[in-house]
């Protein structure tokens, strides 16, 4: 028996139902795709946040370990100084490997991590001295035995491009009876134990200052001249080879403007002036953090001490 033929209206209804079914399927697929996209986006963001959080925590752990390595090294710096000065074998006092002017203190336990520390001793002193502050260097070789610096001290100052300024050098020495000490037969000020001598220098364009020496024209000892080192304009030379000088400390104070300085030994290296400490810590995830600290061998007294009057008894105005 032949199937019943659909009438025209029935065919239209059937086609309409098929079209609606197709549209519903497309909508369902679209909803599924959008839901997957949103879900993947949320999951990706959560993973990203988790990764960032983990990296932040690991970074903080590494940084804390590197800081801890610096603190541990500073607490043992005296022993490290001795080992570097004497050229002691590994682990003599500091537990570090000494090589020339360096100490390597590797795999130091800091909490649940380890840090590798490198300490470099530098016998040159380079810095910018702010106005109102003082730079200070030591002229004593710690030994043992302790000895005075026997060479020529070079003070280069005022970098090219810096504003014109002036500086004062204060040489502090041990007092010895009947000795021409402190770079002069009669130092500016003397006490039972110490004496000091002060020298003030001006740059080229500053004039009319009483008591300041000109670095361009000829000046009495210690001489100041045009510097030959690239980057600095002037150079002051202090010949401390005379054993009667007994110089212990040099203080440098700027006037009018901050001044950049480079202090080194000419012929004979200076005693160690700066210790540069580098501490590196690395986590299991490979995150590395480094902390660098510099420490002067001789901490500088504040500039106010240059204006302090000391007396064993009462001071009468």
Low-confidence stretches: none
Helical coverage, percent range: 10-25%
Radius of gyration: 36 Å
> How many individual helices?
2
Structural class based on helices, strands and sheet pairing: alpha+beta
Percentage of β-strand residues = 35-45%
Mean pLDDT: 79
Shape: elongated
Largest sheet: 6 strands, mixed
Element order: H for helix, E for strand: HHEEEEEEEEEEEEEEEEEE
Structure write-up:
This protein has 317 residues and is of the alpha+beta class. It has a domain at 124-271. It contains two helices and 18 strands. Strands 5, 9, 10, 11, 12 and 15 form a six-stranded mixed β-sheet that branches. Strands 1-2-3-17-18 form a five-stranded antiparallel β-sheet. A five-stranded antiparallel β-sheet has the order 4-16-8-14-13, with no helix packed on it. Strand 17 (274-282) and strand 18 form a beta hairpin. The radius of gyration is 36 Å and the shape is elongated. 25% of the residues are buried. The mean pLDDT is 79. Residues 21-71 form the Type 4 fimbrial biogenesis protein PilX N-terminal domain. The chain crosses the membrane at residues 24-43. InterPro entries: PilX_N_dom (IPR025746). Keywords: Membrane, Transmembrane, Transmembrane helix. This is Type 4 fimbrial biogenesis protein PilX N-terminal domain-containing protein.
């Amino acid at each position: 028996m032949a199937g019943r033929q659909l009438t025209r209206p029935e065919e239209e209804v059937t086609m309409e139902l098929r079209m609606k079914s197709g549209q519903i399927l497309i909508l369902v697929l679209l909803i599924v795709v959008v839901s997957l996209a949103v879900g993947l986006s949320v999951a990706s963001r959560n993973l990203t946040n988790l990764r960032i959080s983990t990296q932040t925590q690991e970074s903080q752990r590494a940084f804390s370990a590197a800081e801890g390595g610096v603190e541990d090294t500073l607490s043992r710096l005296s022993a490290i100084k001795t080992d570097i000065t004497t050229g002691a074998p590994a682990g003599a006092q500091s537990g570090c490997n000494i090589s020339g002017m360096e100490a390597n203190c590797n795999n130091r336990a800091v909490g649940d991590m380890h840090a590798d520390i490198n300490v470099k001793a530098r016998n040159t002193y380079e810095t910018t001295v702010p106005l109102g502050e003082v730079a200070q260097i030591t002229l004593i070789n710690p030994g043992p035995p302790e000895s005075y610096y026997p060479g020529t001290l070079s003070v280069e100052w005022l970098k090219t491009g810096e504003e014109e300024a002036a500086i004062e050098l204060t040489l502090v020495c041990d007092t010895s009876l009947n000795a021409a000490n402190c770079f002069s037969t009669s130092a500016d000020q003397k006490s039972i134990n110490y004496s000091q001598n002060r020298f003030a220098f001006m740059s080229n364009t500053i004039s009319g200052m009483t008591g300041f020496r000109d670095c361009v024209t000829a000046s009495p000892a210690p001489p100041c001249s045009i510097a030959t080192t690239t980057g600095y304009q002037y150079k002051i030379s202090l010949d401390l080879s005379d054993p009667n000088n007994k110089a212990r400390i040099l203080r440098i104070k700027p006037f009018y403007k901050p001044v950049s300085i480079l202090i080194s030994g000419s012929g004979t290296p200076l005693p160690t002036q700066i210790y540069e400490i580098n501490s590196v810590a690395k986590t299991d995830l490979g995150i590395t953090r480094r902390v660098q600290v510099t420490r002067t061998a001789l901490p500088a007294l504040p500039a106010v001490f240059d204006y302090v009057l000391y007396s064993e008894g009462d001071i009468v105005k």
